[in-house]
Amino acid sequence: MIQEKSPAPDFTLLDETGTTRKLSDYRGKDVVLYFYPKDDTPGCTTEACAFRDDYSDYEKAGVVVLSVSADSPKSHMKFKEKYQLPFTLLSDEDHKVCEAYGVWAKKKMMGREYMGILRTTYLISKEGQVKKVFEEVKPAGHSKEILSQI
Fold this sequence. Notes:
Number of helices: 5
Helix content: 25-40%
Shape: globular
CATH architecture: 3-Layer(aba) Sandwich
Mean pLDDT: 95
Distance between the termini: 21 Å
CATH superfamily: Glutaredoxin
Largest sheet: 7 strands, mixed
Strand order of the largest sheet: 2-1-5-4-3-8-9
Number of domains: 1
CATH class: Alpha Beta
Low-confidence stretches: none
């Protein structure tokens, strides 16, 4: 897990349109970088829709919202269109960025162990430093929690 006050690891990923995006492209702006397990699942939809509903507050604050999961750009596009998500969805299919941020880990559900993404959010400064780490995120209310820290 990347610690607060550490440099945020730069990365290059494809967004939902297949466009290459780099974290360093957003220098000069605060960034909310949130990792979530899977498109169009109940918790992930709750979380994404809360960011959508609060998006104008992020824009007013000059904050960029980026989300990352291991889903494909095509899956992201369906998710984005279904829920009218106004922010960028990044595809980390080989989970290298998730590993770099320490959010790719062993998980358990119904007695089954598997590797997956730990729901985690990083608030990154204009200079590319991690300002705050939110671990074990609860989807409902998380966006408001982040806004209270901006």
